[in-house]
Amino acid sequence: MAYKNILVGIDGSKRAERAFETAVDLAKVFSAKLYLVWVVNRDRGMDSSFGVNEDFYQDFAKRTKKQLQIYLKKAQDKGADASATVIIGSIKTVLAYDFPDQHDIDLIVLGSTGINAVEKMLQGSHTDYVVRHAKADVLVVK
Amino acid sequence: MTSLLRKKDINALISHASPLKRTLRTWDLTFLGIGAIIGTGIFVLTGKGALTAGPALSISFLIAALCCGFAGLCYAEFASMAPIAGSAYTYSYIAFGEIIAFIIGWDLILEYALSAATVAVGWSGYFVNLLDNFGIHIPTALTAAAGTTPGVTSYFNLPAFLVVLIITWVISMGITQTKRVNDTMVIVKLLVIILFIACTVWFIKPQNWHPFSPYGWYSHHNGTATGIIPGASIVFFSFIGFDSVSSSAEETINPSKTLPRGILLSLIISTILYFCMTLTMTGVVRYPVFRKYINAPVLAVLAKTGQSWLSIIVSIGAILGMTTVILVQLYGQSRISYSMSRDGLFPKFFGQVDEKHQTPFKGTWFFGIITSLGAGLINLNILSELVNIGTLTAFILVSAGILIMRYTQPDLHRGFKAPGVPFTPIISIIFCLTLVAGLNWETWVRFFVWLALGMALYFGYGRRHSHLNPNYKGAD
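Predict the joint structure of the above. Result:
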């Protein structure tokens, strides 16, 4: 089957960069629409009194928007039909459920996450989660 | 003078906002609230509370809950004024002006540092007990700060000091916990509390409840404030977090009805739990015994009943639960100082975001080290009082603000309106003032010193460097 709407998760890491490049190539091959999504991880597990964390997330999203424009330009220069979105939310649920549902995503491209033991215990791998829970096909770029 | 009250432009903030979906109903809010409330206060401060109020500490919990109910309604209106997510500090920058925002931010820094330290001290109490159960003994001098237990020589709380440093490192690396981990911890804590009550309620000797209220409502005993009100001033800490319900107005279906119900129900359920737990504890053990178990009061009960298996379970549950609470507190701490630095009220040092980890790395370590020293050096008698005064002050300012804004800006957007204005904010202020009055005068002095330091910082630095200063020429 040909993929129509491709989502690629970007977080500024080297691995995500490779996923991005793969996704751009795929989008061109399939003539698919490419969605560049950068999720600012705001996990409700860290909620605290007086909402003190919220400003940080908002600023983070602002900075991220600028960075994502660079990717968007790169993708468009290569001739992909791309758009860029920054979302504040839980990386896992946004990439596995919310965004794919809203945009009829049929392929999700992600970088494999290299996380250490402490991270694994507290938050688990985002990529693993999306692979297990998303309805769409998931491509993990090594 | 007006520049003291210069305000942030709300439109600059809205331009980046994304509206939230309304999905929360009464029970969602109730569970959200219980999850936020059931922290660790009950495991740490019941001992100090029982020494202050006797078995009538159970009544103190009721009073603290009432205070939270009224303050929670006011905070809900306050949080719903700005149609975007932000902190109490940012909201007050928009609504009340710079100096009030600075004071609230400064208070929250104190609250977060001290509550992390307080919980770390409790963590240490249960950790030391757990090690004891396995035959590992840490020298007593290194298990508590000086002056913790009369007649026992101690200098430094090494486990508390270390746990804060370790968690500071975790946060500085950009590691957070998911909601699932947090929810699991809430359930662990709830199960531990219920198991504890179910296993020890049989050992209650009603004569331990006499006299029920040895110090009355408010009195002085050996130079410290005692009685039900001072007890409430201390256990107020056990409810902190209840405002998470208040700040959910924009996500709530029919907030004018749902929000008060959510606040009420979550407070009622957690108060019932606290009430039963306190009565059980003071019924099994005569309250003066808690003096020897001040950092880990639940263990006083289990030492008396001889259920060492249960004390292992309780200790493990408490340690797990407290670890995540310290994590969240230290995280909040670094974020509030970040916000103030971003606006120019604090030096840039605190606002610099590390490229690799995407955290305010330096600020996290700065306050992490200060907090770890506080946890190591300040004893629980002092911590338990200081931890609440900043929060209470913040609620007084918020409630007063609500009252004033209803008259000065009646047409402002409000996603939720507190019922019974002007009475609700007035009652909230009276309750908060009463709880502040229940604290010892030494605590007030320490707090005023903190405020004076803050004002020195504001007038010496923040006022000139504020991004709202007309002379500020910075890039955004």
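Chain B is about 65% helix and 0% strand.
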